[in-house]
Amino acid sequence: MKNYTTEKIRNVVLLGGTRSGKTTLAEAMLFEGKVIDRRGTVEGKNTVSDNTEVEQIFQRSIYSTPLYAEHKDHKINVIDAPGADDFVEGAILGLNVCESAVMLVNAGQGVEVGTEIHGRYAEQYKKPVVLAVNQLDTEKSNWDNTLDSLHQAFGGKPVVIQFPVNAGVNFDSIVDVLKMKMYKFTDENGSVEECEIPADLKGKAEDLHAELMEKAAEGDEELMMKFFDEGELTEEEMHQGLRVGFDKGETYPVFCICAKKDIGVRRLMEFVTEFCPAPTQDVNGQTSLFVYKTALEQHLGDVTYFKVMSGKITEGQDVINMTGETKERITTLYAVAGKKKERVTELVAGDMGCTVKLKSVKTNQTLNAPGYDKVVDPITFPPFKYRCAIKAVDEKDEEKLGEALNRASAEDPTLRVEYSRELKQTIINGMGEQQINILKWNLNNNYKIDVEFLAPKIPYRETITKVANAMYRHKKQSGGAGQFGEVHLVVEPIVEGVDTTAKFKIDGKETQLNIKGREEFELPWGGKWEFVNCVVGGAIDASFMPAIKKGITQRLEEGPLTGSYARDIRVFVYDGKMHPVDSKEIAFIIAGRNAFREAFKNAAPKILEPIYMVEVMVPADCMGDVMSDLQNRRGMIEGMNSEKGFQILRARVPLAELYKYSTTLSSLTSGRATFTQEFIEYQQVPADVQDKLLKAYEAEQQEED
Q1: How far apart are the C-alpha atoms of 306 and 139, rounded to whole Å?
Q2: d(CA 114, CA 419)
Q3: Which architecture characterizes domain 6-275 according to CATH?
């Protein structure tokens, strides 16, 4: 492959919902670009994009696939992003490293939830978007309905460049209203005849040409004046105006294709080379690479995918990983087309490629020439919305499982693995059950680890609602040195904005405690606690106060009700007893812990549960079912509104009720809805729920005993 300069490079991400045909389009682009000499099919399990065993088994895109094609003296780098929301990582990274997007729309379905989601991301990242209406050769294809759905979703942005002549099973012709020509495709290899527009379509073409001309004039003030004066623009002037609107994200050109039969693909690639912006990276700067993807690939080992952010990279060049300042040598460079990798000697600013066998490089890291310290901002991904626990069926595999999970999360930033000391579980946070199923397949087949997925425990919190006191005496005599410690304390809830009076009824008597010392601690799990020393007369030596605090802290870390973390409690230690010989630190740890436990249980304790704000994007005809399901999950509906053909539903829902919600939502809406969830606060559980939790914890403790 020849070396390309930055201005001859185009970086494009393929977006669109599941089954919109992105992988098939990528295959046609590579065929047109002479990268492959035969097009594969998803059904035939031989496409360049879906090249992993798991993708071929499930016949769907799971991973983002970097590709390239050569067209008219340009190199087009393509990232084929999966359409499913569970694998949104591909779309996000593609929008971060590509300058423009091609959005595919199924002509039989119109704009779907996946289309809308990817469209939102494209708007968020301010990327120019080309709309490609695909699958115009099917019985269900409906051009007019699809166009209506595009306008409903994207407002006035879509502008028709082409329209189909005979959409349906006999689809073979397109009218291009920019060039004012008809193109008839004579085979399934992109062969095309240029024809004059038939008389019966001339009027429609002229009307659309006029609309296109007006849209082009809107992009440039001088063109607008000429259009008003003369009522006409040349094709070159239309190009100029459309390019301005396209670059600003105000115009979404609409093309007609059938990727499966290579209809319209060449013209789409031509538009990409002519209209899509070239990379803006600094050609003359020092070498800087941004790692947007890492993977373990058969026969190659660790593969690092990157974009050249400035300067150029050559084989044999040393770079510094700005995370940890470690040195790496780029021994080989490749241009990437899925599994097919072509060795190159250099890559310039704006280009993308990969290398192998780097020692310690991860996604979102920057590799620079020595002495260059600029760091590329890492890609941020949407919040997690699926949560489960995992364990190895065979305990002997736990260490092996940990290593495999660490690698999986390093390759996929939307998959986070953590061991929760609080819950005593390994928790996986991700985007959906499909993603977790793929993880399980990889663990079973690639790592030979049999795993079990479980409902995750809920990180409840415990606190109190009133004042209570207690005492505890720890006395132990075992033949040698004994243990003795006695602690008297009062607990009260911490209420934001309300300070303590330190006046309590103790043993039926109103008592004003004398505060000698006061410490406040912010808790790592949220909330706080206060330790107040009110001991007078030397009843407990000051040297034992840290031990009492330690004992209370131990109980805060394992609350008396359910073993969950406790919070927002003020503790007054006001009395106690010592022994001149037997009083030791351990005695006061135990006495403090147990006195706190008893006081806690007498202080009208309550359990708090995490509440999440759930926002669901759902088609109007499924709204009732989705709302009813949320209410059955103890959800409180907070608002509803319409947006671009979908209903947006907001509800406060306990985390305990959200396990496998994505699966249920998909079932209720046939995969047409999506949602996000975000933690907002802790809230007291209902009385019946608290009773169930207490009984469950009691039973669990009995089993352990």
Answers
A1: 41
A2: 32
A3: 3-Layer(aba) Sandwich (3.40)
